[in-house]
């Protein structure tokens, strides 16, 4: 009975979130560059300028590592999040830049319901699982566009070139705990930078 109740509750919650999306409101979550006011998503102007700076400078040829250095040097506000695995990050990291450069919301694509979370019976942890494309809710919000399509295209052309030239380098490694799959040295990914709090890797 408890399992049935939880399943029913999850379905009702999901329908409620879908209704929020249909009405043009937020379904929860926080994206750097935006804020929610009375349930409606708005562009946060200061953060949006930072996002444009990152896109523009990456398109001009700066590496993600160089961007991290310059943003931290200039004291630019960064996306922060408390984690269960360690202290809160205290500055920009490559994973922050990677996430921002791949976020399609910045070009007005707020498609929802791409993934769902299922509990792993072995570990008990919830894992994201991709949904079929016909389950997606295609949502275009051009008024929430921060990055223009031309700049987006320039950035992603360079990202593609980096992959072609270097293969699976750190610049294309996904953020969020992926260090274990690539670590070649003891404690790589477990030590943290004293300045920004990001995980440290040896190249």
Provide the descriptors you would attach to this structure in a database record.
9% strand; two-stranded antiparallel sheet; 4 strands; 203 residues; Hect, E3 ligase catalytic domain fold; globular; mainly alpha
Task: Explain how this protein is built.
- This protein is mainly α.
- It has a domain of 133 residues: Alpha-Beta Complex (Hect, E3 ligase catalytic domain fold).
- Helices cover 37% and strands 9% of the residues.
- A two-stranded antiparallel sheet has the order 1-2.
- Helix 2 packs across helix 5.
- The longest helix has 21 residues.
- It is globular and about 55 Å long.
- About 7% of the residues have low confidence.
Brief synopsis:
The protein is mainly alpha-helical and 203 residues long.
The CATH superfamily title of the domain at 43-175: Putative Large Serine Recombinase, Chain B, Domain 2
Reported CATH architecture of the domain at 43-175: Alpha-Beta Complex
The largest sheet is: 2 strands, antiparallel
Using the alpha-carbon principal axes, give the shape: globular
Which fold name is given in CATH as the topology of the domain at 43-175?
Hect, E3 ligase catalytic domain fold
Q: Number of helical runs?
A: 6
Give me the count of strands.
4
The gyration radius over C-alpha positions equals: 19 Å
Strand portion: 5-15%
Low-confidence stretches: 169-183
CATH class of the domain at 43-175: Alpha Beta
Helix content: 25-40%
Strand order of the largest sheet: 1-2
Span between termini:
52 Å
Q: Secondary-structure element order, as H and E?
A: HEEHHHEEHH
């Amino acid at each position: 009975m408890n399992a049935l109740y939880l399943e029913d509750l999850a379905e009702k919650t999901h329908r409620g979130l879908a209704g929020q999306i249909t009405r043009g409101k937020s379904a929860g979550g926080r994206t750097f560059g935006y804020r929610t006011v009375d349930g409606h998503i708005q562009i946060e102007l200061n953060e949006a300028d930072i996002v444009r700076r990152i896109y523009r400078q990456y398109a001009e040829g700066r590496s993600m590592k160089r961007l991290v250095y310059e943003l931290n040097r200039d004291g630019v506000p960064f996306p922060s999040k408390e984690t269960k695995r360690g202290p809160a990050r205290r500055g920009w990291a490559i994973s922050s830049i990677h996430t921002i450069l791949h976020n399609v919301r910045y070009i007005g694509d707020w498609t929802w319901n791409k993934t769902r979370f299922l509990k792993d019976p072995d570990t008990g942890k919830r894992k994201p699982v991709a949904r079929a494309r016909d389950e997606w809710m295609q949502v275009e919000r051009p008024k929430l566009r921060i990055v223009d399509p031309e700049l987006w295209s320039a950035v992603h052309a360079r990202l593609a070139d980096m992959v072609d030239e270097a293969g699976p380098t750190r610049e294309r490694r996904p953020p969020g705990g992926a260090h274990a799959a690539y670590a070649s040295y003891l404690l790589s990914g477990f030590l943290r930078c004293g300045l920004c709090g990001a995980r440290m890797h040896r190249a």
